[in-house]
Amino acid sequence: MAVWDVASRPPHEQFGYWREVICEAFVPLTPSRIGDADDFRSRVETRPLAHLVRARLTSQPQRTSHGKGEVARTDGAYLFVNLQTAGTCAVEQGGRHALVQPGQFTVVDTAEPYRFQFDLPWRMVSYRIPHPLLGGRLDGMRRLTARAIDARGAGGVVAAVMSSLWELDNGLGAPDAELAMVSALGAVAGERAGAVSDRRAILRAEIERVVDAELSDPALCVATVSRRVGISPRTLHTVVSSGGVTFAAMVRRRRLERAAVLLADAGTGLAVTDIAASVGFDGPSSFSRAFRRQFGRSPTDLRRAPARGGQEVRAH
Amino acid sequence: MELTWSTEGLAPEDQFAYWADVVCEACAPLAPVRTRQHLTRSRWGEGLTGWVRAERLADSTPTEVVSCTQRLTHGPAEVRRGRDEQIFVNLQLDGTGRGEQDGRRCVVPPGSFAVFDTTRPYVLEFDESPDGSPWRVLSFKIPRDQMLALIPQPTLRTARTVDARSGAGVVAADMMTSVWRSRAQLSAAARLALDHACTEVIATALGAFEKEGDDRSSVDDATRASIARFVHERLPHGQVLAVEAARHVGISVRKLHQLYDGHETTFGATVRDLRLQRAARQLETGGPHVTVTDVANRWGFCDASHLNRAFKGKYGMSPTAYRESSSATVT
């Protein structure tokens, strides 16, 4: 644990000491003061954990810049999670800006330029998280930067964990407790990303439902389906391709799978030509060709010896 | 979806039976008892007043229970009756809790918690707080196999108070309460992430007991458990590499692999096991449009046939059969 308090210096040296201190305690930053008071009462307390560095800061109105030069001079890459406890902070990064009030927190990434402006005396709790601790969550977290996040919902859990972690000793359980912080942050980031992917999954399911209902139509096209679902053709393509296939490939696969189910079910007694037509194929030869490419055997072969348990031919 | 039960409006002679049903439904099979001593020291001298509020997160279900002085027994009959194998993490909010399991006894004051395992008998006793308010407990019901994968010892240290002296215990308690308080504002993705985060941090707090044993083997056990928790947390977000796990717990990669020498498992097997657990869960909850290939890809298996093979090895049935059997059970 380390404490820096500018009170140990005479008033006219305090701002200069503060400038040294924040670079010492955090990352290269250039502060410039706002206002012209004689002193610059400030204090920083840091408590390293296993990989996180926890800090509590008090200071005066100022602008702080982590510009291109500072980015280049920074050793390593970190996210800062700053929970505002007094005063306000105007934050800017990546073209986004927000005003952070007491009780809110914000995230910044040291790998890119950012700026803070404090118009009042302020206090904050700041946790420095190395990029590797975030693992695969890093991209999601980056989308979270320079926003004012309320301590409500998943944000509330982040604030509670930050407060709780402050007291933790750097012992055997520390790395695991740090994961609690990472998970809670991940939950906040996920809240923004999750909304998008849920909507996509819902749309994809609806598109598949409409396609299944119209499989027997050989002229089934994007225009019809997108109109039926109530979205633009462009959206349809985006949603379908996020599942890793084109619309045409998806429709073809569903036609063939339904055909396979019908063929494997000996009870239908339908001719192969009729099955082909019922799933929207123009002719029996194009059907056989496509079928063999998909399943590795001809339609008649499948009819003669359906797969055990029918597992290979489930239509999804 | 939140479920609430309350004895309010019931006549005293009906309250007991109702309460017994409620706790069995919301928690585990438990038989409530109010002896003469309980009644004498309680503000509620007759009947049984209480309410329960439960809301499932993802795999675990936090439940808030508020009531008057009583004893709750999970005896041999209740053990036999129980369907699911669960761990209960009982965080005392108000009043005092006492518990007994596996020959151990504990006293749980507000802010502390203790865990109990439904596969063996246990007894709980709760007292109202000295100022006359009812006791309150926030109980997290966690699937037993999930918890056991994340702690060092083969058997869980039940009936042991985890309190404010354990830093990890405080983080766990604070996380449980804040997740419970903010549950209405959590998206589905957040619920899942925080559900698992709570289980991991609770497991950390429980594992802290191993610090007491100075010998090599208990430190190694604790490290292996820490690795398991790291893997558990990382799994949904991509590959989990040995080098990252080693860095996380502060050892070399070589030492990490050595930790598994002479043990039934390896680092790779730990990762695979946890991947299979997640795959199983997705099969249960994913819905009909999620294919086995989707699940295989999601959890890092090359294709459906690789998942099939590994899945049968762990669960003794194919993923499809597992999905069918789990949809047949009403959750």
TrEMBL record, chain A:
Q: Does the keyword Transcription apply?
A: yes
Matching entries from Pfam families are given as: AraC_binding_2 (PF14525), HTH_18 (PF12833)
Q: Where does the record place the HTH araC/xylS-type domain?
A: 205-305
What keywords would UniProt list here?
DNA-binding, Transcription, Transcription regulation
- Report what the protein is called: AraC-like DNA-binding protein
Q: Entry's PROSITE patterns?
A: HTH_ARAC_FAMILY_1, HTH_ARAC_FAMILY_2
Q: Which is one GO molecular function term here? A: DNA-binding transcription factor activity
Automatic annotation (TrEMBL), chain B:
Calcium among keywords = no
Quick check: keyword rRNA-binding in the entry?
Answer: no
Q: Name one GO molecular function term.
A: sequence-specific DNA binding
Q: Which Gene3D superfamilies match?
A: Homeodomain-like
- Which PROSITE patterns would you find in this protein's record? HTH_ARAC_FAMILY_2
Q: Which residues form the HTH araC/xylS-type domain?
A: 225-325
Q: Which InterPro entries does the UniProt entry name for this protein?
A: AraC-bd_2, AraC_XylS_family_regulators, Homeodomain-like_sf, HTH_AraC
What keywords appear on the UniProt entry? Answer: DNA-binding, Transcription, Transcription regulation
* SUPFAM superfamilies from the UniProt entry: Homeodomain-like
- How is this protein named in the record? AraC-like DNA-binding protein
Originating species: Geodermatophilus tzadiensis
Which lineage is the organism of this entry classified under, starting from the top rank?
Bacteria, Bacillati, Actinomycetota, Actinomycetes, Geodermatophilales
